[in-house]
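Notebook p. 47: complex prediction with 4-nitrophenyl phosphate.
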Amino acid sequence: MKKISVLFVCLGNICRSPAAEAIFISLLEKKGLKEVFIVDSAGTGSWHIGKKADSRMRIAAERRDINITSKARQITSKDFDQFNYILAMDNSNFRNIQDLKNRTLSNDSAIIKKMQDFRSVFNEQEVPDPYFGGDEGFDYVLDILEDSVNGFLESIC
Ligand code: 4NP
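Predicted complex, structure tokens below:
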């Protein structure tokens, strides 16, 4: 069976998208769907390539039994061929992904959406960037992501 592949994308790939990736994997494990999916995350920026996720996000996620293990990488044009779904955390990420796609000569099979297109409980139109804020911002991002990641899975299953 062909797997469904999902790439979560933010700016740095050290806060929001690795959290979304880990929350999605945790949800798939609970539902017995992990083997059906390929899940990854990436950043539109290159500053943090190779780094672990921000420790503030890893600690906040661990309190919810969510283990963030990914290392940062930058999105590339190959991702448009390799992923079925590319989910942007905010409008700026979405525009940057679209710009990269427009400069790419791939077959563009990926469906590009905003993470918050799948929200149900929270009204936020974008997943806010917690990087320059306090610790409470990381918990808020996790709350938002648990809602919209769940909504995304429901929309495709
Ligand atoms: P992320 O957060 O896009 O959710 O990973 C950020 C991480 C780093 C920076 C900005 C946002 N930065 O400016 O280095």
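Notes: The chain has one domain: 4-156. DSSP finds five helices and four strands in the chain.
Next step: compare against the earlier run before touching the bench.
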